[in-house]
Fold each of these.
Amino acid sequence: MPNFEITTASAHDLTMLAEWAHEESWNPGLADRHAFFAADPRGFLVGRLDGTPVSCVSVVRYEPGFGFLGFYLTRPELRGRGYGLRTWQAGMARLRGRNVGLDGVVAQQHNYRKSGFRSVWTNMRYQGHPADAPAAPPGTVLVDARAIPFDRLAAYDRRFFPADRDSFLAPWVAGPAHVPLAAVRDGELRGLAVRRPCRTASRIGPVYAESPEVAGALIGALAAADPGTPVAVDVPDVNPAAVRLVERLGLTPSFETARMYTGPSPDIDHGGLFGITSLELG
């Protein structure tokens, strides 16, 4: 009988998981693994069949009451044999007792519901070359977010995410080839967005802003930094202003997921959330 075991992923394994995600058309960031591994080095599980990786899941612990699940994959030729389910069960055991979030692809949402998850909003990935992006509002300047004291960035991020995640946020802002922009007015943060290179469209996430005008200025400025490459933003429909913005910019839908939780929907600033950070870690 084949030997199947589930182990904690190595740093090298995260490169493999990104390749698997690329094959699923998820378009992961080229350097995501650096921030992902820093967030929770024990939070990535790999199922191995006779030593060969065949399944995976990420189960990142943020604080005692919250966790996030992603990277749930089984190699296509081995699906339907229970390896993915056993990996899922091991992952959920690691997050037992927490409110667990995930961004689920359409094909798996019914399975997630059977496991106790419920949908709270839909993320639609909008992609393309922004047209006629607005300028920053009067008095608002866009600056390199790496110049902002980190405690201010972390406090701002906490408005839009259910838990503190300093160990993730620091390498996300300062990651290789990542371009972070902050909107500042009267000495206060009014927006934050990060662009990262991917195999196809560059992904922009998160996108936080006090208004559609600030969000549009951030997206436009990040797109202009590499005008030959399209950008993609995963937009939550819980913020209708965000949907209207990306449609006004001429971006088009290309990929859909659902934000789901096992417990109550966390109390975050939905009105300022114009783009989620990542599908894998929330």
Amino acid sequence: MTRVQANLVLLLAAAIWGGGFVAQSTAMHAIGPFWFIGLRFAVAAIVVLPFVWLEARKAAAPVTRKNAMSFTLVGIALFGGAATQQVGLQTTTVTNSSFITGLYVVFVPMIAVVFLRRPPHWVIWPAALMALTGIYLLSGGSFSHLTVGDLLTVVCAIFWAIQITLAGSAVAETGRPLAISAVQFAVTAAAGLAAAIVTEPISLEAISDAIWEILYVGIFSSGLAFALQVIGQRYTTSSQAAIFLSSEALFGASLAALILGETVSPLGYVGCALMFAAMLTVELVPEMARRRAISD
């Protein structure tokens, strides 16, 4: 695969994830957020199982009990992110959700300080300020105008950052990304269904009305897009991969405008641009510095 083809594959993955925000929003016209989470991740777990079997056949060592515990922790973090994002979509727009969720790339270096005792690159601080300013402008120039959904989505981005950090450590330790995916999907599905049984009504009619959204997010956003990401990143640079994958927020906002008729104020567009710039800055500046150091 050429680099151009790999970047197009990553762009397709980002587009699929962007469409997932729209599907997550429209599904809640028929079904509660926790039922949606439980069912979508159950589908995702089933979809990835054959690939887990193939991975296990080639693995150098079996998964230990300690590995299984670390995989479960990844799943708990994933559930935290999925739950706050899905509940947040009840009171925020798809546009806001897609851009605020994307701020996980800014939070990852901060989370690494806590979990890995790894000092962040200096660029994280101006990027965090850019992101905070972007949220401020997206809210219309007043934090008091932020909805509960916006604030939950900020929490979601923090959970995503924790999940990425824990998953990265688990992959480095075991070399089993697909096994980790299956376990985290299963844990999130079980937690979502348990919460749904306690807090939300359900009927076969509700599931039927939301079935296409459940299948789209379960099969394509969780299954296909993950595979495309893994494939694409093998044949391109990490900096280019960051650019194309970060376009998930742009696709989410564009599809929300096209399909749902969402609009953003001019000030909000400036805020989105600042948040997107913060995402790219965190990914690209350290990579450029690393390359410069190698060339020197």
Amino acid sequence: MRTIWKGALTFGLVNVPVKVYSATEDHDVPLHQVHDKDGGRIRYQRTCEVCGETIAYADIDRAYVEEGQTVVLTKEDLAALPAEKSREIDVVEFVPSDQVDLLTLDKPYYLEPDSKSPKAYVLLRKTLEQTDRTAIVRFTLRQKTRLAALRVRGDVLVLQTLLWADEVRDADFPVLGEDVTITEKELELSASLVESYSGDFDPEAFVDEYQKELRTLIDAKIEAGDTFDAAETFGETDSSAKGGEVIDLMEALRASVERSKAARAKDAG
């Protein structure tokens, strides 16, 4: 696996240096668009609608349009945003794990200890396990501030990004507000049907049949010689901080607890 991000997981005064890896990958067979007559690769160009020129990616800025006005944001503008410079995963709070709505879970990442001693990493992992808590964290990845849930999967800490509250739509279906009568017999038969399908979930037992058949089809065409020379039909393609380690873990934990207690007492006062 390739590291996509390096930084430090912080809670209180404790820093846990970590490396971040994508926890999932797409298994779909990659397909390209080609001309049906000669197999030539179909490519898309970035064309300016004002001057009609083809624009290199390096010369492209971002823009926001509102009420007929376009606001251009240059690379320098975006680079100046504070969140982009952060290399820390900050723990905001620890919440009961059942309070994290599965609907809000998004992209998962593995966290690997990035220090000579994994003690702080293991301590946090065991603490989450014993308290049945999930850490809600905030961090920056690919120029975006993200909210995420930090949880345990086996021996590994998993960081799973969360959708923001305003990104989850309300399920407003008037028909669900109507009165529906369900008889005891219907419930009994429905429960019996559920029981007949009951079992322990084994993800390895399920296969993406479409991708499997697609791969078989491709292999058959290759074996039959039904191919084009890629160099001729596709042509040339354009190729366009590590967190500090806490020396005295116990002292950092004590100081963090005292600071948290003082902050809560001040708020209560």
